[in-house]
C-alpha cells in the first residue's frame, strides 16, 4: 500500500512540475515616430506577418479579406492597432509606448508648431499631410487629442474602419 501511494504521489509531483514551465511572449516597447510614420521597424504598409513577427504579444489578429474588411493586428492592452488591410495604424489615449511628439493629451492648438496647418479641418478631427501620407488627430470636446491615425494613403483615398 505504501508503494502504491508513493507511486501516485510521484506521478502527481511530476505532472505539477511540468505544468509550471510556460513561456511568456515578450514584446518590445512600441516607439512611434510621428513625422516618419514608423513604429520601430514597421510602417503603415507593413503586412500582418511583419507586424506579428515584430510584436508577437498581440491580443487579436483578423485575417485580411482582399480589401473589403478590417484585417490587422491588435494590441488592446497597449491601445495600438495595425489595420494592415486598410493601410493605417491607430493609437489611442491609453497607449503604452513612446511617441516622438507629445500629441496624446495635448491641446489642439499645440499641434500647429509641429505639424503646421491641417489639410482638412473638422470640429472633431484634423487631417495633416505628411511625408508618408496622412496623420489624423481626434479631439475631445475640451480640445484634447485622444486618438491618432497614421496612413500611407492621402485624404482622398483613405478608408477607415468603424
Written account of the structure:
The chain contains 3 helices and 12 strands; from the N terminus they run H-E-E-E-H-E-E-E-E-E-H-E-E-E-E. The chain has 162 residues and is α+β, with helices and mostly antiparallel strands. It has one domain (23-151). Strands 4-5-6-7-12-11-10-9 form an 8-stranded antiparallel β-sheet, covered by helices on one side. The protein has a 4-stranded mixed β-sheet with strand order 3-2-1-8. The chain is elongated, with a radius of gyration of 22 Å.
Write the layout of secondary structure elements.
Layout: H1 2-19, E1 30-33, E2 38-39, E3 42-43, H2 48-54, E4 60-62, E5 72-75, E6 80-83, E7 88-92, E8 97-99, H3 112-115, E9 120-121, E10 125-129, E11 134-139, E12 145-151
Parallel strand pairs: 1-8
Antiparallel strand pairs: 1-2, 2-3, 4-5, 5-6, 6-7, 7-12, 9-10, 10-11, 11-12
Amino acid at each position: 500500500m505504501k508503494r502504491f501511494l508513493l507511486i501516485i504521489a510521484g506521478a502527481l509531483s511530476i505532472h505539477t512540475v511540468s505544468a509550471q514551465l510556460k513561456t511568456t511572449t515578450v514584446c518590445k516597447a512600441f516607439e512611434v515616430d510621428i513625422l516618419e510614420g514608423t513604429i520601430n521597424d514597421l510602417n503603415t504598409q507593413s503586412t500582418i506577418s511583419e507586424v506579428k513577427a515584430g510584436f508577437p504579444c498581440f491580443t487579436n489578429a483578423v485575417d485580411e479579406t482582399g480589401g473589403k474588411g478590417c484585417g490587422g493586428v491588435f494590441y488592446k492592452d497597449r491601445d495600438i492597432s495595425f489595420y494592415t488591410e486598410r493601410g493605417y495604424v491607430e493609437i489611442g489615449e491609453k497607449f503604452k509606448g513612446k511617441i516622438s511628439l507629445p500629441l496624446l493629451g495635448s491641446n489642439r492648438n499645440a499641434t500647429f508648431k509641429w505639424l503646421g496647418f491641417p489639410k482638412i479641418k473638422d470640429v472633431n478631427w484634423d487631417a495633416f499631410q505628411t511625408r508618408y501620407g496622412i496623420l489624423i488627430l481626434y479631439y475631445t470636446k475640451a480640445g484634447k487629442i485622444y486618438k491618432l491615425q497614421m496612413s500611407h494613403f492621402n485624404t482622398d483615398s483613405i478608408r477607415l474602419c468603424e
